[in-house]
Amino acid sequence: MGRFRAPGRGFWGGLAAVPVTVLGLLLVTFVIGRVIPVDPALGLVGDRASADALAAARTGLGLDLPLWRQFLAYLGAVARGDLGMSVLTGRPVLEDVARVFPATLELATLATVLGVGLGVPAGVVAAARRGTWIDHGLRVVGLLGYSVPVFWLGLMGLLLFYARLDWVPGPGRLDVLYEGLVEPRTGLLVVDALLAGEGEVARNALAHLILPASILGLFSVASIARMTRALMLDQLRQEYITTARLKGLSEARVLWGHALGNAAVPLLTVIVLSYASLLEGSVLTEIVFSWPGLGFYITNSLLNADMNAVLGGTLVVGAVFIGLNLLSDGLYRVLDPRTRPP
Fold it and tell me: 219-228: per-residue pLDDT in tens?
């Protein structure tokens, strides 16, 4: 998904475009649900049901109505917070999503922290040493971060660090020994364990989190390092940098205090959008590590023809991405006075 803010559009104009964007998202998910050759009624009653039972199920789901009436009914249900019932779990899809989304949030958040912690310094150093072997080396690492398939990288990580070296636990979010010991509060397992005073459970949950977050974070490192380098190069060409150097300021202060300080506002936007990309793009990582998050939930639902769950999960991912896009626009305008109206 790209950014929905048109060039030159003010923040309020972008805010006004949100309903149109959400409507488009709803339309896309509705069309996907009708184009995919999976009959929701058949998934509900089973392939051994009689023709009468199948027809009754189609009527109950409203599939016998014209498409425009089905779409209006879909809009009304979503407006009420009703994303349908999951055939696979037998629970409301919204309830399922609320249960699994914190796992994705936990994974993407740590991956973003790693991406910022490694990507920003790498980008600054690459810009400061432009054209040197350090710059070329960091750019190669960034290229690998973009190019290496996350599925393969995850499997290799498990093979090396789990199967061979035994440095990290295996797939999953927690060892079986610790399951059920912590009552879910926030849904973030490490946080919940700490709130419950279960230090051993928190350590085990964090150990399970490190490898998948590192694999996912590699892509964030590549994106953030590349953008940091580009922003820093632009700042280093400005006259105030020359002035600061002529005043005798140390190179470290020029780089980290002045250049990075002025690049921080657009860089913050890049970080927010990178976070949004990790939230929606962690599907393969969750599959490889059996991580019970939203991506794993959507994939498992698709394999079982549970279209309510697939469309509901997709809709939530799109809504989160739109919200973070809007947040990045708002932060940019709040932190950069040049974007405010006179």
Answer: 888 889 989 9
244 within 8 A of 251, measured Cβ to Cβ = no
pTM of this prediction? 0.81
Cα within 13 Å of Cα(5), Cβ side: 23
The whole domain housing 250 covers 11-37+83-339
**240 lies in a domain?**
yes
Rounded Cα gap, residues 322 and 290, in angstroms: 27
Which residue type sits at 326? L
**Length of the chain, please?**
342
Taking the CA of residue 228 as centre, how many other CA atoms within 13 Å lie in the half-sphere pointing to its CB?
Answer: 32
Of the candidates 274, 137, 291, the one whose C-alpha atom is nearest the C-alpha of residue 217 is 274
User: Domain for residue 4, yes or no?
Assistant: no
Bridge partners (DSSP) listed for residue 201: none
Number of domains present in the structure of the chain: 1
Is residue 5 in some structural domain? Answer: no
User: Cβ contacts of residue 261 below 8 Å, gap of 6+?
Assistant: none
CATH code, domain with 31: 1.10.3720.10
Q: How far is CA 184 from the centre of its chain?
A: 22
Q: Burial of 102 by CB count in 10 Å (0-12 exposed, 13-18 middle, 19+ buried)?
A: buried
* Position 231 in a domain: yes
pLDDT tens across 166-224, in order? 898 888 898 888 888 888 888 898 999 999 888 999 999 999 999 999 998 888 888 89
Report residue 85: phi and psi, to 5°: -100, 140
How many whole angstroms separate alpha carbon 208 and alpha carbon 185? 19
